[in-house]
Amino acid sequence: MMHDVYIHDIGTALGGITERNDAATLGQSEAECQRLADKIGIHSRPIAAPDQYTSDLARAATEALLAQTVVPTESVGALLVCTQTPDHLIPGVSSRLHGQLGFPQDCFVLDINQGCSGFVVGCQVIANWLRTAGGNGILVNADTYSKLIRRGDLTTRALFGDAAAATLYSTQRKGLRLLDCRSYADGSGYDAFVARGSALRTDTGTPNGICMDGPGILNFALRKVPEAITLTLDAHGLRLTQLHAVLFHQANSFMVGQLARKLKLATEQVPQNCMNLGNTVSASIPLLLKEQMNGLRRGDLVMAVGFGVGLSWGVTLLEYVGND
Amino acid sequence: MMHDVYIHDIGTALGGITERNDAATLGQSEAECQRLADKIGIHSRPIAAPDQYTSDLARAATEALLAQTVVPTESVGALLVCTQTPDHLIPGVSSRLHGQLGFPQDCFVLDINQGCSGFVVGCQVIANWLRTAGGNGILVNADTYSKLIRRGDLTTRALFGDAAAATLYSTQRKGLRLLDCRSYADGSGYDAFVARGSALRTDTGTPNGICMDGPGILNFALRKVPEAITLTLDAHGLRLTQLHAVLFHQANSFMVGQLARKLKLATEQVPQNCMNLGNTVSASIPLLLKEQMNGLRRGDLVMAVGFGVGLSWGVTLLEYVGND
Predict the structure, then answer these.
(1) Is there a single domain that holds both residue B91 and residue B43?
(2) Final residue belonging to a domain, choices B173, B205, B228
(3) Is A313 exposed, middle or buried (0-12, 13-18, 19+ CB in 10 A)?
(4) Burial (0-12, 13-18, 19+ Cβ within 10 Å), B31
(5) Is A124 close to B124, i.e. CB distance below 8 A?
(6) Shortest Cα distance, chain B CAs vs residue A31, angstroms
(7) Tell me, what's the pLDDT at B1?
(8) Which segments of chain A have a pLDDT < 70?
């Protein structure tokens, strides 16, 4: 028996420090910072405090979710944490969270490693689990990229924010029904976004920390993302105009704008929230979805679109079925 | 439609250096080393060379698998790498492997983080994928724990080996049919096995590297593993004597012996191969399964049992259905 899978609710948490993209912070002229902030559409970002780790953000988001829903921890059959910035390599953040919040021992507990496609890929893993097992599951998307960013590299520093989002999935009909979820990969683009000197490989000849080929990723996204969206729509006999909203991963406002333009989407179909969040990696889509959920009406179709490190990209298609 | 899932074949690769548990290596008296090696049943272990990383072992194991099977890379719909010692935190080892070996872009590519339960947990993820999608998938279990082990800590150094195993899963009937797969977690035991100072948390007051509470893990395994085995058998109306083999994670010979004794398993039901491999983390079960596959007859039941870091534990029940 295959169950349908729904998203019920989302809890969120932000890094404890607000970092502004201004002259005092970035060490450039005010005019230069203004130009940069305007182009990327990011004026400030939440950043983890020095003693705040991914597990802390993951825990806060999960506690927020549990507080605002009626789901007891005992009913959670799967607890996934998607992160690329764990506290430790061994064990995973999900183990820590499992112990801290007292989830049951027969819970499926796992860390998955994925970046800006991590909401879509995580959705695939948890939905595949629930389709067969039924019940409730939580996917936490949480990262603290700021700890891997070279402070002098403004092309990445001005972009990324630290945050977490905990999404409650269930086979009980409510909220957003998962209609489709598909992801793609092109590992030949591994070097387009790498945290050098992280984990175990010794990278010589390059500075340690996150190295990003921004133009390469923009070019890849403009080629691959519209293709994946079209494939998904075609599979369901849908047109872009029938989508209530397309929730792009909030890489930055410039990139989202380019994608929207290329697809000829109406401005009101493409909500954005990166101005004071930045690019929060795999948490960005659920942070945006949480803001949008209250405004949805029964039958509204929402598409979530992730793309980035790996390279990887993917699409999730959702339909709002009401909240009762 | 839910597909049945089968394990067809396994490719393997070992770290390029052989490290012996002898006086010259461990810096203890020969008598002391002999006593230790005899107790844990581990006399030598493959260790990754300084320039050999998890992705290198993962690639070698996957190439071995592809060479010995008839599965073309284009037919692989899922590529999972289970590791706790990736080359980089960002991106995952699976991305690198995907690019190096030219898997297709519509492949589901993901790193999962799990230790000695990683064969069982990985099996759950890939089986859930194949049950709905059908087709072929590869799960690679690969680690280089030696790079995180403190050389002076003989309680861990004498145990762990570096290796990789790539397992071909398919919905085509052949090899071992997956009858059941279940995993458990107790995150309150997070601290029983931690790689301190790995990834992003600053751990003060303790040396960096792998810290293991050996007696605590033995005690946990002796309590929880038999319980999980019994639950699984009961669910299928089976008795222990009906199992052709129980493939325990090769933590060490002492621990496997204790588990076998507690369960009153016959010696011939409990194959071991850690003497010259050591504890190869999540690769240990597929390394052992590969050795056993040729000796199986149609109808033979095999149980794979993982346990360790997290804490976590799990059971996979397989039935050999023949090779034609």
Answers:
(1) yes
(2) B173
(3) buried
(4) exposed
(5) no
(6) 33
(7) 65
(8) 1
What's the one-letter identity of residue B179? L
Q: Which residues of A are part of the catalytic machinery?
A: 116, 249, 279
DSSP B193-239: EEEETSTT----SS-SEEEE-HHHHHHHHHHHHHHHHHHHHHHTT--
A169 and A31, same structural domain? Answer: yes
Quick: pLDDT tens for B157-185. 999 999 999 999 999 999 999 999 999 99
**What ipTM score was computed for the predicted complex, to two decimals?**
0.96
CB of B99 less than 8 A from some CB of A: yes
Same domain, A13 and A155: yes
- Per the model's pLDDT, the better-predicted residue between A70 and B255 turns out to be B255
Cβ count near A171 (within 10 Å): 18
Residue A190 in contact with partner chain B when CB distance is under 8 A: yes
Q: Which of A108, A188, A194 faces B99 most closely, judged by CB atoms?
A: A188
Residue-averaged pLDDT of chain B: 96
Chain A residues whose beta carbon lies within 8 Å of the beta carbon of residue B97: 187
Q: Which positions of B are annotated as active-site residues?
A: 116, 249, 279
Token readout for B120 is 């069982």
Q: Which of A113, A121, A138, A211 to mutate to test the interface with B (most CBs of B within 10 A)?
A: A113
Between chain A and chain B, the number of residue pairs with CB atoms below 8 A apart is 223
CB B6 within 8 A of CB B176: yes
**Cβ–Cβ gap A312/B109 under 8 Å:** yes
B276: contact with A, CB 8 A cutoff: no
Q: Is A2 on the interface with B (CB under 8 A)?
A: yes
**CB-based contact B303:B269 (threshold 8 Å):** no
Closest CA to A266 of A295, A294, A243, A297: A243
Residues from chain B that touch A122, judged by Cβ atoms under 8 A, are: none
Are A67 and A35 contacting, i.e. CB atoms less than 8 angstroms apart?
no
The whole-number pLDDT of residue B95 equals 98
pLDDT of residue B62: 98
Tokens of B63: 């190439």
Which CATH number does the domain housing residue A207 bear?
Answer: 3.40.47.10
Residues B142 and B23 in one domain: yes
User: What mean pLDDT comes out for the span B151-155?
Assistant: 92
Interface residue B141 vs chain A (CB under 8 A): no
Average pLDDT over residues B215-223: 96
Q: What is the DSSP letter of A241?
A: G
Contacts of B150 in chain A (CB under 8 A): none
Range of the domain at A78: 6-173
Neighbours of B303 (CB within 10 A): 22
Please report whether residue B1 resides in a domain.
no
Which residue, of A173, A191, A215, is where some domain finishes?
A: A173
Contact B199 A115 (CB under 8 A): no
> What is residue B70's predicted lDDT score, i.e. its pLDDT?
84
Q: Residue A50: is the preceding peptide bond cis (ω within 30°)? A: no
Q: Are residues A217 and A112 in the same domain?
A: no
DSSP-derived secondary structure for A304-324: EEEEETTTEEEEEEEEEEE--
The pLDDT tens digits for B34-61 are 999 999 999 999 999 999 999 999 999 9
Please state the separation of Cα B288 from the chain's center in Å.
9
**In total, how many domains does chain B have?**
2
The one-letter code for the residue type at A80 is: L
Contacts of B184 in chain A (CB under 8 A): 105-107
- Say whether residue A124 is in contact with chain B using an 8 A CB cutoff: yes
Examine the domain organization and report whether A118 and A265 are in the same domain. no
What is residue B5's DSSP assignment? -
